[in-house]
Amino acid sequence: MSELKTKLTEDMKTAMRSGDKSRLQTIRLILSAVKQQEVDTREEQSDDDIIASLTKMQKQRRESISQFEQAGRKDLVDKEEQELVVISEYLPAALSDDEIDKLIAGAMTESGASSIKDMGKVMGILKPKLAGRADMGAVSAKIKSALA
User: Fold this and answer.
1) Are 69 and 116 found together in one domain?
2) What DSSP character marks residue 52?
3) What is the pTM of this model?
């Protein structure tokens, strides 16, 4: 069993004992997504696979929050924000803008990228390094401006 899955299971037990229902619900949601991936792929998920799932869940929460804010649903915004906090705890620490810029510059040099047509090469190098540590939409925008 992966370290991250073990930590999630232990944290679920702790949340049960302490009676923290919202945290427990979010951890169960995460473990359910992991289990679903394991059933779909018929193999145990690695830490990297779980981080990819968590990143996807994080993105979904952010999108939901913006939609609920537009609809004036403060109750749903609060729920999504609580889930986002718990999900973020299990992701690696986010990179700073300077660190991301350095990685982009390095990837551009490594791939020999010179125009916007080379963006796929740069993203291919960066994606594994930045998974779960940066908003890939923002990274994409930075790469476009650097290549323009």
Assistant:
1) no
2) H
3) 0.77
What does the chain come to in residues?
Answer: 148
User: Are the C-beta atoms of residues 32 and 48 closer than 8 Å to each other?
Assistant: no
Alpha carbon 100 to its chain's center: 16
User: Residues 109-126, buried b or exposed e (16+ Cβ, 10 A)?
Assistant: eebebeeeeebeebbebb
Residues 115 and 73 in one domain: no
CA pair distance 79, 92, nearest whole angstrom: 22
Q: Which helix (H) or strand (E) holds 138?
A: helix 136-147
The string of pLDDT tens digits covering residues 7-39 is: 999 999 999 999 999 999 999 999 999 999 999
Q: Which residue has the tokens 């540590």?
A: 133
Q: What are the structure tokens assigned to 18, written together?
A: 């302490």
